[in-house]
Amino acid sequence: MMSLDPRIRRAEPYLSQITEVQLEPLGHWPTYEVFVQRTRGGHAQHVGSLHAPDPDLALVMAKEQYARRSQCVALWVVPTHAILWTSAEDEDLFQPATDKSYREPQGYLNSRERLEKYRDRLKPLS
Amino acid sequence: MLENLQTLILSLADDELFMGHRHAEWIGLGPILEEDIAFASIAQDETGHAQAYYQILTDLGLSTPDEWAFRREPKAFRSAHLVELPNFDYDYAIALMRHFLYDAAEKVRLQALTQSTYEPLALLAKRLQSEEKYHWLHARTWIERLGRSTEEAHHRLSAARNLLWPYAWALFEPLPNESEIVEAGWIPPSRTQQAEWVALIQPILEPVGLWKAPPTEAEISQCLGARHGVRSPYFDELYAEFTEVSASEPDADW
Amino acid sequence: MYGNLVVRPEDIANWGKKVQEEDPVKLAEFEARIDRGEKIEPHDWMPFEYRRQLIRMIEQHAHSEIIGALPEGTWITRAPNFRRKLALMAKVQDEVGHAQLLYSAAETLGKTRETMINDLLSGKSKYSNIFNYPAKTWADTAVIAWLVDAGAIINQTTNAKGSYGPYVRALERICWEESFHLKYGYDNVVYLATGTPQQRAMLQDALNRWWRPLMHFFGPPDTQSVHTEKLVRWKVKLATNDEMRQQFLDMYVPKIWELGLTIPDPILHKDPETGKWVYADPNWEEFWQVINGNGPCNQERLAVRRFAEENGRWVREALRPKDAHYVTPLA
Q1: Is A30 on the interface with C (CB under 8 A)?
Q2: What is the pLDDT of residue A85?
Q3: How far is residue C73 from each of residues A13, B95, B204, measured CA to CA in Å?
Q4: Mutant choice from B97, B156, B210, B245 vs C, greatest count of C C-beta within 10 A
Q5: Dihedral sign, CA of A33, A37, A42, A48?
Q6: From B28, which residue of chain A is nearest by alpha-carbon distance?
Q7: For residue A7, which residues of chain B lie inside 8 Å, CB to CB?
């Protein structure tokens, strides 16, 4: 084929000889999940996944796919199969059923009011 | 004196320019998306390094980086033949082996340049080291793995090594007037750099069976002349493509 | 309760399951979630039709990116100065990167990357028609980077308001990266438009050839489009083809005219009463011809991707871990 692309012309005749391609399962390797720490002091955050054959190459390739154009001080990779997570059906696990304001600062708004009332009761006696 | 400095800087810059260009031929055609992306960064880095080296000459009142890259006659280039070689048959073994051999040389070169008495070079080298660190990490990670993987991979890498071997040694062809350049403290002798380069690549290639004896003087001589203006047989086609658009309207702004 | 995500085989096998056959309670909860503006995540219950349509859409988008890297990639080695060469390398690299992000997003729905690529290479899955045209000259890359990317951005910012979490996250990053593409493309066009007579002529010629494909870019007119109520309800399709086309014309026709370029459409104008752009029929017959394989570059585009995959096979096989097993990516 007479391509307008000199790179493609250079790949001939080999290129035109390839007529059918079938990738097998895992032909593009298993996946790793990528975490990026943007600044010192910040949390490492999940940013996506990539296909890699081992952790070292996962890190090498993740650097360019996930930190090439954005700020990064550290990069983590984890094989996808090593991650466990809660199912969608169990999202309700995270919802409290009873009033838990005893462990929030907002649960303690009345202390001052009680003290004022007490001091008011004492006033006529003094 | 200026001519010697120019030769030195053009050797460095022209190597980077065409190495980046050859690497860039792979963008969109790589063996897997993730590696395509990584290799494209290396191509950009090298191209940017070339521009930065030329800028040193520009700051001395000479041509702009675009003029250096796009408007020179062949014999005015100082690029090693290694970087002018095409991506034969789009063989990724050649791409990786060349990248490995070249970036090892770059690592040695840059480290040496950080001690250069010519301050702009020393400062630039220091800056470029962080990108070069990634190139070296990338190159040796790939070679170490592919070298001990399948028979096919090993066979391809060996063939690539055989093809590139004398060209890689020729990277260290002494510069014209090298004794003056060394005397000025701009860069250590080529032979010294070469020895450091060998010490860097041998411990990586040997364990994966990809080391072999250095090429003979006769073999290397086929690849020499680069630093004196002798271009490889591949240069004309390379440069015609490189300048196809810029030469179509030499005085235009793009 | 805790565990790896397993996409059930029946999620993929049951493509034919109609919406009416879905569990009505789950469907109502699903739709209520979307109505509240919440995102659907990979492990949520979802109707088969939603999963199927999203895979099709995201996969097609991914294929468009990797194929889209080819027309401009043509000109990297011939770029006329450092600035353009570096920018073009970075732009094409971004397209490959976007393909990676989008394949990953589609993978979360249960279709493997290998299957998607096989479907592309066999012709079963489609990609954006516009990339079946050749980048004949350097000016073509300027027009593509400006106007094709402009179209893509309109598409992407629209879809970024969609309901599926992974796709929305991918699109947010893609939109951010594409903003430089548009600036680069416009800068390139301006230099050509304000350059030598030959540069101006090259640019005008490129625009003349790319105009009709650009008019086809957002797909057939709404009158010819298939029923998409469910997709709108589920925030998979967020604007009609004509709406996006109008947005494109409104944003870019004045800018094209401002450069002193002509558009090869004798009646193109904005109707002052309706506020809508009126344009000549862009020959939808050509659109259907090209999308069905008869465009100038269809064969080449797929041949190049087949070549890249096959050429890289030994590399991938050499490093493939023997004990690997596949797990659907997370998010």
Answers
A1: yes
A2: 87
A3: 20, 18, 34
A4: B245
A5: negative
A6: A7
A7: 25, 29
* Contact call for C76 and B27, based on CB within 8 A: yes
Q: Rounded to whole angstroms, how far apart are CA atoms A6 and B249?
A: 20
Q: Which two tokens stand for residue C261?
A: 């370029």
Nearby residues of C279 by Cβ (< 8 Å), 6 or more positions away = C215, C249, C265, C267, C268
Which chains does B contact via 3+ CB–CB distances below 8 A?
A: A, C
A69 reaches B (C-beta below 8 A): no
Q: Which of C112, C120, C180, C184 to mutate to test the interface with A (most CBs of A within 10 A)?
A: C112
User: Which of C283, C313, C296, C310 has its CA nearest to residue C71?
Assistant: C296
Nearest partner of C164 among C52, C86, C266, judged by Cα: C52
Instruction: Note whether B240 contacts C: Cβ–Cβ < 8 A.
Output: no
Token pair belonging to C153:
């951005």
pLDDT, tens only, A32-48:
999 999 999 999 999 99
C70 and B146 within 8 Å at the Cβ level: the answer is no
Q: Peptide bond preceding B174: is omega within 30 degrees of 0, i.e. cis? A: no
Chain B nearest-CA residue for A50? B34
Task: Kindly report the backbone phi and psi dihedral angles of residue C215, in degrees, each rounded to the nearest multiple of 5, phi listed first.
Answer: -65, -25
Nearest to C129 by CA among C294, C324, C250, C9: C294
Residue in B31, B248, B249 nearest the CB of C316: B31
pLDDT, tens digit only, all 331 positions of chain C:
333 444 555 555 556 678 888 899 999 999 999 999 999 999 999 999 999 999 999 999 999 999 999 999 999 999 999 999 999 999 999 999 999 999 999 999 999 999 999 999 999 999 999 999 999 999 999 999 999 999 999 999 999 999 999 999 999 999 999 999 999 999 999 999 999 999 999 999 999 999 999 999 999 999 887 767 889 999 999 999 999 999 999 999 999 999 999 999 999 999 999 999 999 999 999 999 999 999 999 999 999 999 999 999 999 999 999 988 889 988 8
pTM of the model: 0.95
B44 in contact with chain C, both atoms CB, cutoff 8 A: yes
Can you say how many angstroms the Cα of residue A19 is from the centroid of all Cα atoms in its chain? 40
Report the residue from B37, B89, B142 with minimal CB separation from A65.
B37
Neighbouring chains to C with at least 3 Cβ pairs closer than 8 Å: A, B
> Which chain C residues are closer than 8 Å to A4 by Cβ?
74, 134-136
Task: Indicate yes or no: CB of A60 within 8 angstroms of CB of B29.
Answer: no
Asked if the interface predicted TM-score (ipTM) of this complex is over 0.90, the answer is yes
Residue A24 to residues A29, A51, A75, C94, Cα–Cα distance (Å): 10, 15, 30, 27
Q: Do B34 and A63 touch (CB under 8 A)?
A: no
Query: Minimal Cα distance from B51: which residue of C?
Result: C82
The gap between the terminal CA atoms of chain A, to the nearest Å, is 106
Q: How far is the alpha carbon of B115 from chain C, nearest alpha carbon, in Å?
A: 28
User: How many C-beta atoms lie closer than 10 Å to residue B150's C-beta?
Assistant: 15
Ranges of H-type helices in chain B: 2-24, 33-59, 65-70, 81-84, 92-113, 119-147, 151-170, 178-183, 190-205, 217-221, 235-242, 244-248
What residues in chain B have per-residue pLDDT under 50?
Answer: none
Tell me whether A107 touches chain C (CB under 8 Å).
no
Amino acid found at B137? L
Quote the CA–CA distance of B217 and C134 in Å, as a whole number.
48
Contact yes or no for B245 and C80 at CB 8 A: yes
Strands (E), C208-280: 269-270, 277-278
Q: For chain C, how many residues are written?
A: 331
